[in-house]
Amino acid sequence: MEKQKVQRELQGRVVSDKMDKGAVVMVERRVKHRLYPKIITRSKKYHICDPQNTCGLGDLVRIREGQKVSKTIAWHFVEVIEKAK
């Protein structure tokens, strides 16, 4: 029986779309502080592969982990959830 690798999916906002066939997405998550009863927002930026240049600045998008395309790009564009205003 083969073990299949689970592909993670995240959603975040596009913060840069200046690359050709690529973009930068910021994913925010809310975590509870381990000592004080406070909710903290943590964020991380992911470089994504977007072959059709579909993403625009400020769009809410879904991305999926996949095969590395270049040194920094290992995530792939799935869909636009919400277009920027």
| Strand tally | 5
CATH superfamily: Nucleic acid-binding proteins
CATH class: Mainly Beta
Could you tell me how far the N terminus lies from the C terminus, measured between alpha carbons in angstroms? 48 Å
Individual helix count: 0
The CATH topology comes to OB fold (Dihydrolipoamide Acetyltransferase, E2P)
Q: What does the radius of gyration come to?
A: 15 Å
Structural category is mainly beta
Helix content: under 10%
Largest sheet report: 5 strands, mixed, barrel
Morphology:
globular
β-sheet strand percentage: over 45%
- CATH architecture group name: Beta Barrel
Mean pLDDT: 93
Low-confidence spans: none
Q: What does this 3D model show about the protein?
A:
By secondary structure, this protein is mostly beta strands. The protein has one domain: Nucleic acid-binding proteins (OB fold (Dihydrolipoamide Acetyltransferase, E2P)), CATH 2.40.50.140. The chain has no helices and 5 strands. It has strands at residues 9-16, 22-32, 39-49, 60-65, 75-82. Strands 1-2-3-5-4 form a 5-stranded mixed β-barrel. A hairpin with a 6-residue loop joins strand 2 and strand 3 (39-49). The protein starts with 8 loop residues before the first strand and ends with a strand. The relative contact order is 0.28. The model has no long low-confidence stretch (mean pLDDT 93).
